Amino acid sequence: MNSRYSPILAPAALLMAGLLMGCSTQDSQKIEQDTQSLAHDTGKAVGGVGIQAKVVTALSTHKGVDMSGLHIDTNSDGVVTLGGHVRSEEEKQTVVETAKGVSGVTKVVDNLRVQPGTS
Q1: Beta bridge partners of 6
Q2: pLDDT (tens digit, 9 = 90+) per residue, 67-118?
Q3: Rg of the chain taking only CA atoms, in angstroms
Q4: CATH topology of domain 2-114
Q5: 3-class secondary structure for 52-103?
Q6: Is 103 left (phi over 0), alpha (psi -120 to 50) or beta?
Q7: What is this structure's pTM?
Q8: Which one-letter DSSP state was computed for residue 114?
Q9: What residues does each domain of the chain span?
Q10: Contact 46, 4 (CB under 8 A)
């Protein structure tokens, strides 16, 4: 997970270095704008991780859902992509509907495969 934030952290470090070195008023304004944009992007990234955690938690409470074959990914816009395999169409429907019901989820992309007898 740390690798998700490295594209965000590097520009933040450069912005801070610029602030410490001293710069013109125009440079300071540009740095302030970049910092605000970075804060917004970071908030969206963290939000995606939070949504993923909510989906995993919601699914793990269902007795009929085997989490071992699932792959859950989220993006910063609340889109959840479900992948991997489930044991039945019923389990697949439960996984998709549960993900759709999680707060912050805007869309669910269903890439699940039904493989009876798997766990």
Answers
A1: none
A2: 999 999 998 889 999 999 999 999 999 999 999 999 999 999 999 999 987 6
A3: 20
A4: Histidine-containing Protein; Chain: A; (3.30.1340)
A5: HHHHHHHHHCCCCCCHHHEEEEECCCCEEEEEEEECCHHHHHHHHHHHHCCC
A6: beta
A7: 0.60
A8: E
A9: 2-114
A10: no
